[in-house]
Design a protein that fits this description.
By secondary structure, the protein is mainly β. It has one helix and 22 strands. The protein has one helix spanning 180-184; strands at 2-15, 23-41, 44-61, 66-84, 89-108, 111-129, 134-145, 149-162, 165-176, 186-189, 193-196, 204-217, 222-242, 247-270, 273-285, 299-311, 314-325, 328-333, 345-350, 353-364, 368-375, 396-403. It has a 20-stranded mixed β-sheet that branches. Strands 18-19 form a two-stranded antiparallel sheet. β6 (111-129) and β7 form a beta hairpin. The longest helix is centred in the middle third of the chain and has 5 residues, at 180-184.
Amino acid sequence: DWKFNLGGSFYEHDEFDFTNDALHKLYRSLNGGASSTYRVNESSSIALSHNSDIYKRFKFSEKEKSKSLTHNNAYHTSKLIYTIAPGNHRILAMIENLYQTLETDKFIYDEILTKSTNDVVLVLQDEFQLNGKFAFVGGLRAGFHSAFDFHASPSVTAKYSMGKFNLRTSFARGFRSPDLKELYMNWSHMGMFQIIGSEDLKPETNNYYAFSVDFVDAVRNLNATVIASYNDVKDKIDGVWTNNETEFRYVNFSDAQVFSIEALLKWKFHRNFKLKTGYIFLNSKKSVDAQDLSTMSPVSLTGQLEYRFSKKNYQLNVNLSGKFTGEKEFDVLDSDEDSPYEGEYYKIKYPGYGLLNLMINQYFGKHIKLGLGLRNIFDYTAPIATFNTSNTPGRKYFVSIGYRL
């Protein structure tokens, strides 16, 4: 009736440079967790878990063989979950504690400070199967945040199944508090620009609506899904460039709307061939003046064609994948004090582009693997490389050889 799980990992990395100060950077990452589950009876159970994720950076002195801390970020999550399944219901009740602490010199220059937040959350959820066609999920997530007091987020989903089709409609209210960097950061990137947080930030809230249609044909190995969603966000947290793009400040936008349509297809049309495609249309606005500040492309198309062949001690996998990112256009605030258009928005356009990759893996027996690859087949490079373009340097060839014991 009892189950236990314990796991973790430790990672350490030295990064040496060529300066004569005998200092180098040292990175450490430690994460671990433990959980236990007790089955009360056939229809109910209790689970308790805790997980920690700790990341540290140091300056290490080769002369003194000592280190000084420059960054310490830790997340601690504890959960107690009770589930029970009476009749056609599956009820979940959970209490969760989320604690984050950040110790860094990026709050005040050349001085280590520690900031932390704590969020205690209660969750109730009921999955109800009315009959073979109707199913409902209702939930409520509520809690108390150390910086932003009480918050509550209800959600409901309904599904109707008819033959090969599944229809779903959903509503959810969301809550996201600013993280510690968005609240307190005041950091200069080698004097080139400053990243500045704000303690006056409000938490984000949103109303999310979605409708989807699934088509599943097991005989033809075909699965197709179309999802339409609308997300209305209040007090959206995002960064804006100010002071002639020398300062990146986190601010609240009074409103933001995101409308998207997503289409997915998985089809194994032959015993050796499998096709996967995805299409996303995205329209987002996030300011009082309905300026389009999103740097995401409104159109994105991905595809993957896979071929598999095996015979005795030989296997061949060929994978042709690609992504097309459509043209994007968004508004930028002119913050140049010397500009006659200071305080006004102007549009920036980036052209669309496509990347196509080919990967061939061959397996000889149980031990040997030979890989051949070609990235960016058509040798695309952006005319001007920025944060909003592809950073590929062009076509790449590679070979890999593996041996498994």
